[in-house]
Design a protein that fits this description.
The structure is a single chain. The chain is α+β, with helices and mostly antiparallel strands. It has helices at residues 9-18, 28-36, 40-53, 84-92, 120-132; strands at residues 71-77, 97-102, 109-115, 137-140. It folds into two domains: 9-53; 66-140, Lrp/AsnC effector binding domain/regulation of amino acid metabolism (RAM) domain (Alpha-Beta Plaits, 2-Layer Sandwich), CATH 3.30.70. It has five helices and four strands, in the order αααβαββαβ. Strand 2 and strand 3 form a beta hairpin. The two termini are 24 Å apart. 13% of the residues are buried.
């Protein structure tokens, strides 16, 4: 991760306004830039700098997989330290793995499967088990709660 950039008032305004919606028009970045009083090039440069430094961790749409016929499933594994590196490589090589985190817990690897059809989570988990030789525990979503968090200045 790059060094944390100096964040000025325009960067803060960009972060505040872009988290609340993005215009679905022919030239959305140009429209946003004009609202911020900067050029589209300046907006793109600022966004790239904030992403590269980790000040912004993600900029893009959030899809509801269920409404599109797919599913997300939280999974966990107990990975022995001597197998950690090879297991990370095998798990992360899967196109269905959306996130993968190491945790200080008996189940020390947690990841999210994003699949095109809800019925595929189990199959993908079994394939990961076959590739790694380790059990995969699935924690399917029972109900969903949407809590919208917006950063304000």
């Amino acid at each position: 991760m790059a060094e944390m950039p100096d964040i000025d008032a325009t960067d803060r305004r960009i972060a505040l306004l872009l988290q609340d919606g993005f215009p679905l028009v022919h030239a959305p970045f140009d429209q946003c830039a004009r609202e911020f009083g900067i050029t589209e090039h300046d907006l793109m440069t600022r966004l790239r700098r904030l992403l590269a430094a980790g000040a912004v961790t993600r900029f893009g749409p959030f899809y509801n997989a269920e409404r599109m016929g797919g599913d997300f499933c939280l999974c966990a594994m107990r990975v022995p330290e001597e197998l950690w590196g090879s297991t990370v490589e095998l798990v992360n090589a899967r196109i269905e793995v959306a996130h993968n985190y190491r945790r200080d817990h008996a189940l020390n690897m947690w990841f999210v499967l994003a699949v095109e059809r809800a019925s595929e989570s189990g199959r993908v988990a079994r394939e990961i088990e076959a590739e790694t030789g380790l059990p995969v525990h699935l924690f399917p979503k029972i109900s969903e709660f949407f809590l919208e968090l917006k950063v304000v200045s």
